[in-house]
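Batch manifest, entry 17 of 40.
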Amino acid sequence: MPSASHRVSRTPASSHLRPLTELAPATVHAIRYVLLDIDDTLTTEGRLEAAAYGALERLQRAGFYVVPVTGRPAGWCDHIARMWPVAAVVGENGAFWFRYDRSRRRLRQWFGCTPAERQVARTRLADLERAILAAVPGSAIASDQPYRVADLAIDVREDVPALSDSAIDRIVGMFQAAGAQAKVSSIHVNGWFGSYDKLSTTQRLLEREFGCDAEAQRTQVAFIGDSPNDQPMFAHYPHSVGVANVRQWLTRLTTPPAYLTRRAAGAGFAEFVDHLLQCAATKADA
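Output type: structure tokens
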């Protein structure tokens, strides 16, 4: 896993990042939905630490709807939807959302592609898998690939030594040349066939399951993330936050987050939650 100091960018984009403290209480009071990336946003060095998980639970208890929006696979997301203190989860970069209905003991699911479309895509992705591994030394199939339903995850720094920028770019280029979408996370390059992404599926989830329409989402949603596959979220939501380690990816972000935590990864997420809850307490005391 990359640390917060790995490949820190000194691009002009960094000058536009405002400290989290500038996310004013008056703005925070409208927020009802907290969306978050998982790897290197909630987790630290590949581990979900107690402080970060506890921050999730504090958010839920305070009445926020908490929704991880991740590149992780369907198998993990089934577990997350059922067992974590979350309202729902969006997985595989928008391939689906899951929401567990506890009263009925039923997992509600939505997929961006039909089973037949996913089967055709799997054949095409298998061809890409062979081509990428042959063309890019050091790359590997992500260890969570067996639990995926819609995409191909190439490991570029989770269980393998970190690949160079040029190697990552080559993987992205091979996906795109085949007509697939490709997104770079802090650990993987994910590729898939389909028009969905993190943002489009999250918007659909919030509207269908929670009645939060596109206009309301602009004021009621906050998103926190750390890497290039979070860019659609950074670009769309005014209340977007990057944990400190997002700085290392600024050269790949055309739209950085609006705000930045002082701390990296899970500690930065906990810092963000502390700020939200302190602002909420300020309103309650007013």
